[in-house]
Protein 1
Amino acid sequence: MTFTKWNFTMSVLGIVIYVADIAADIWVTSNYFCEGQYSLGILTLVFRLLSSIIVQIFSYEWFKDDCGSPDPGKLKWIFLLHFLHGGIFTRYWFALKDGYQAAFKQNSSGDELTGGPANIIHKCAIDAGTDISMLRVFKTFLETTPQLILQIYILMEHDKAAFSQYASIITSFSSISWSTLDYQISLRKSVPDKNQFSGVPPKLIYLLYKLFTLTSWILSIALVTLLNIISSIFLLIFLWTLGFSWTLKQHTTFCKSKRMEFLYRTVVGIILIFTFFNVKGEKTKMYISSYYATHVLVTLGIMCVCLFWKTSVTEQLYFTFVSITIVLTLGLGIICLIVYYRVFHPTIYFRQESASDEVDGLTRERKKEEISRIRNFIME
């Protein structure tokens, strides 16, 4: 488990994208208020505030779990930082500090990574980066993705947009793409018995698979919202109910307390609205096939409804462009999905035996030795 200079560079890039996403949201929100569109401004703020609260809750609970029996004074400071919504920045500070030492100090000193101090520093840096990746996934699907749908809906509804809205859409897409790819890299790097997610071809195909399928689905939801907001809300609630029910059936054990486990399952239900999420690390072939088959059917159903439901929306010039983009990105996304799992999945690409789909099959003794949140938080 080695934290490299490239990993440190990616951590720096991650916080740059995170800050840019926040800045773009603040910019577009201030424009809404300046233009008197208070409902849109408030809705944008609500998405950000709710997601931030949930992320701070998980981050604070993890700090408590990691500290064991922490100093009360230190815990109060950590609570205050999270109460002020600075949890992610606090974690980035520790991650960059440990990452710099691991990437630039330990490697250059010639220490052998055989379980000594150097190895501990590398593990701390990797674990810190992995926690940030998990929290960023939460933030991505709780705030960035709904925010993106909202901005695209507003763009199509008013048929015009300010530069700040385009900036928000671009940063949102960048944030979503980065978080999904970075998480998969962090996942495999932090668990020793997994094949590493390395090499340009696997990363590129995985990124395209996620980017294309998410783009198609985001545009589909925005189109339904444009046709009928109530129908869109019912569709999202129905999909969340299915995802939440499936998570309950999986009997997840991600959190130590029942209330946090319930919150976790609620969040996973929201993530499942937008992308596939394997919560148990078990065989994914049947689940992922069923998931994207459902996505294809729902997307095609939305397109058929749009074509036969004659409204002013279908007469707009952008409707043709959006429809073509939905179908094209969905097709390309499914192709990239098949290519990734057939050719570029680490268990195939590196021709090694892997435990990537057998997390729950580890021995109890091995689990005790390597307690890690990541083992119960798997996304393929």
Note: Confidence is low (pLDDT under 50) at residues 107-116, 352-371.
Protein 2
Amino acid sequence: MAEHLSQSELDYPFKLLEYLNGFRISKAIFSACELGVFELLLESEKPLTAGEMAQKLGTSEDGLERLLDLLVAIEILNVEVVQGTAYYNSTDVANLYLAKSSPKSLHTSIIYQSQTIYPLWNNLADAVREGKNQNEKTFGLPSEEIFSAIYRSEDEMLKFMGLMNSTWVIDGHDIATAFDLSGFKSIIDLGGCSGALARELAKEYPSSTVTVLDLPDVIQSALRHFAQEGDTIRFQEGDFFDGEIPSADLYILARIVHDWKDDKNLKLLRKIHTACNTGGGVLIAEALLFENRRGPTVAQMFSLNMLVQTEGKEHPPSHYTHLLNEAGFRDVQVCRTGKSYDAILALK
């Protein structure tokens, strides 16, 4: 680390201290979302004082004021002091991504991070020691039954679906347009959850039929809570690991492969290859590591998250190329989007 730092950083560890305090910043944003801070400011027609907000949100004025001031310091909120009284209002970024009612809101993702991921990461050292996820220690659930832990109640399933929905609302367009997919007339999003990525695909390729295939409980929840007026995507109940995979031109595996070990992924990819129409293919969306192991930081963090929560990990492109070739696919192409998730396309 030292070889990349200037002398000023060696004299005083500004960057290191920023990293060490990062969890406090995350939890401040998480807490503000949970308390309803950003939604209140979005709905307000004028800036509000900490006292006014505390009364509406049911918090202490002192505690809320401290939280608001930190959010101002990290430029998520604005403040103006008039005759000794502080008036707070939201930034455009907070209104767009943190207010619950915004169409691009990350609110449900943040709630999941706060209430599920954050407790798991408290046991990161144990995960590294043991080399396995921490579902048992954190939630009292068997480490082998990954999605039994993730879907341990309807409320938890909806939180996870909200996380996935938020992910593809902001990243889905980049995945849908990473390659020209207009030649694939039937597309199945395996494990497509709420349908957010499928909607992006349907908007970009209106002449293609796009189907979400997921477990029955997930499909029913998607129809109840995430369906949109004018939806052109289809929903189909099924289990792509243990059940039949319908034939199609293109299969989407978005944030699926990184959950599992290679033997299970290879079995799935071979199954997809068999079901795939001639000339078809598979599109994998994951956070790709660099081959030199130097990042990206987000992908490395995701890989650690796979350790604490699942049985999988993130990989560089060469790993996916090897898996796809072994499963029978060819012409593997890689597109780094420059965002959180990248795309790999392989043909049958």
Note: The radius of gyration is 22 Å.
